[in-house]
Amino acid sequence: MDTQVLSNAIEYVKAFFENDASGHDFYHTERVYKTAVKLAEKEGADVGITALAALLHDVDDRKLSPETHQNFDNARRFMTENGVDRETQNKVIDIISNVSYVGEKSPVPDSLEGKCVQDADRLDAIGAIGIARAFAYGGSHGRSMYDPSVKPERFTDEKQYYGNKNSTSINHFYEKLFLLKDLLNTRTAITIAEKRDEFMHTFVDEFLLEWDGTDV
Ligand code: ADP
Ligand code: NI
Fold this sequence. Notes:
Elements: H1 3-16, H2 26-43, H3 47-56, H4 66-69, H5 73-81, H6 86-97, H7 112-123, H8 127-140, H9 158-163, H10 169-175, H11 187-212
Helix pairs in contact: 1-2, 1-3, 2-3, 2-7, 3-6, 3-7, 6-7, 7-11, 8-10, 8-11
The structure holds adenosine-5'-diphosphate and nickel (II) ion.
């Protein structure tokens, strides 16, 4: 992979996510990129493809860019303008089209590079950062932090997952975040996830304790 393409991709996503407050700022992409590269190195994946796919993984996201989501127009245009060959473009698009969590039966990427990008994206949804992102996302979508009368649900497929409109941020832990550690692809990511998952459980246990005033 041409290093100029990667540095252009960094500049491109920096401008792209400039004003996001829903947990998808540039720093999310930057963390996913750095983590994915580390996973790729440890797992023996192609680092260049992994890096480019990680950098472009959210530019055609269904929530952020619904008008380009179907054909991944933003990622395609960036790569074409930067002279990325067709075969590499297709590999990258294949990775980013399968990266997202869409319920318990989310797609498992075919390629090792795709597995690294998906794991890096999921690692950024858990742990301390994951907690902060869940409440940032919830707040920006008008969701409550918690409502004991709204019970967490199980979402198997994409339709159910996106059909869920009025859940709470605490429910999101039960509906997605606590499930992620068992849905990772690579050994390296599973090891990193253990501590992050434990930290989230400690947080939610403490949150519920304080909610009920059990600690008072
Ligand atoms: P990504 O594929 O980058 O993880 P998502 O759009 O699925 O992106 O989510 C962005 C962030 O917002 C993630 O940290 C995710 O866990 C969080 N999030 C998504 N849906 C909800 C929700 N319903 N309530 C609270 N947080 C959410
Ligand atoms: Ni992402």
